[in-house]
Amino acid sequence: MSALPDRILRLRFERGSLRLDAPPGGDVPQYFTWDDRVAAWRTEALNHFRLTEDAKKYQLTIRDDAADFFDCPGLRPAHRCFVRTKRPRWPPGSAPAGAASS
To answer: What is the C-alpha to C-alpha distance for residues 102 and 88, in angstroms, rounded to an integer?
Structure first.
């Protein structure tokens, strides 16, 4: 694939996905798919942040109109990490292989 021309490409949120108005055959991230219906590249909206990071790598200059459509909340881990503070106690002679017996 060839590099895209040196121009500003419009990124917008449209019908549940991100639309990148760039010519076909250009070098865009692999998570984009060409959509013949609108003559533009599309990807899932969840790739918005990923694209902002990948734009430099692909030499894309983007006018990000998608960011105006929705406000992304701050992200937090969905799970808590628990740390075991004590080693399990195994009855004498029953510890699994490699486990320290108490």
So the answer is: 8
